[in-house]
Amino acid sequence: MSDRELSGRVALVTGGTGGIGATIARVLSEAGAAVTVVGRRAELGTAVAAELADGLFVPADLSRRESHHEVLQSTVDRFGGLDILVNNAAAHTAGLTHESTEEEFDRVVGLNYKATYFLTQAALPHLLSGGGGRIVNISSIGTTRSWAGASIYNSSKAALDNLTRTWAVEYGPQGLRVNGVNPGIVADGPMSYPVQAAFDIEEDILPTIPARRLATAADVAAATLFLAGPGADYLSGVTIALDGGLTA
Predict the structure, then answer these.
(1) How far apart are CA 15 and CA 183, in angstroms?
(2) Of which family is this protein a member (predicted)?
(3) How many domains does the chain have?
(4) Which end of the chain, N or C, is more open, meaning fewer C-beta atoms within 10 Å of its C-beta?
(5) Whether pLDDT at 3 is above 90
(6) If you average pLDDT over residues 199-203, what whole number do you get?
């Protein structure tokens, strides 16, 4: 397979200003795609886009539906279309269910589920116009391996996994392929830092992972690249457990 397997393709990566999202943007760019980076942190987003061979940063708070049109229109105006949507933006909160607030619920579910749903809805005409595209949803192993204190986050990601399957069924006949990645604890993923701080990684975590290491943002980006590329053309409705064998 060519190192430029995404040449001529246009990708949009949400939550692309740092961590996993920025790494995904770089890897897709290295594979030849033009990439729109979307996020709230303007300085970081501008820096990430500047690193790419053909990159664009669009600042946006995706929890506001009115931002979706601007993100998509900016992408189409710059690159002429959209072929790949990577739904990576996410929010997290920690606390037992009886401690959770409605404000926390609305913030996490509003970004992880609602914003992803309606951004994808708005992107579908662009993705389908060329006879098919790719959606990659970045979820979490928390959808299948629960832990105390993450009820809002895990349930919102479980909803995202269901959307992966549903969209694959709804739009597969039109050529769209929809898949997901469920990372385990990501060593260089900021959302995993509280978990890493709460446990002794060597003593408590690594013995439970057959691969005996944490995931990296590069691992997530590699899986995303595969799902976005031609090698995954017959794969749809599948979420890859990128966890070193933990959930096995």
Answers:
(1) 15
(2) Belongs to the short-chain dehydrogenases/reductases (SDR) family.
(3) 1
(4) C
(5) no
(6) 80
What's 88's domain CATH number? Answer: 3.40.50.720
d(CA 27, CA 193): 23
pLDDT of amino acid 124: 97
Distances (CA, A) of 38 to 92, 102, 160, 192: 18, 26, 19, 21
| Residue 193 designated active-site | no
Nearest to 116 by CA among 247, 14, 31, 41: 14
Asked if residue 29 is part of any domain, the answer here is yes
What pLDDT was estimated at residue 193? 64
DSSP percent split of the chain into helix, strand, coil, nearest 5 = 50, 15, 35
Among 113, 117, 153, 171, the active-site one is 153
pTM: 0.95
Angle at Cα 89 formed by Cα 72 and Cα 125, nearest 5°? 30
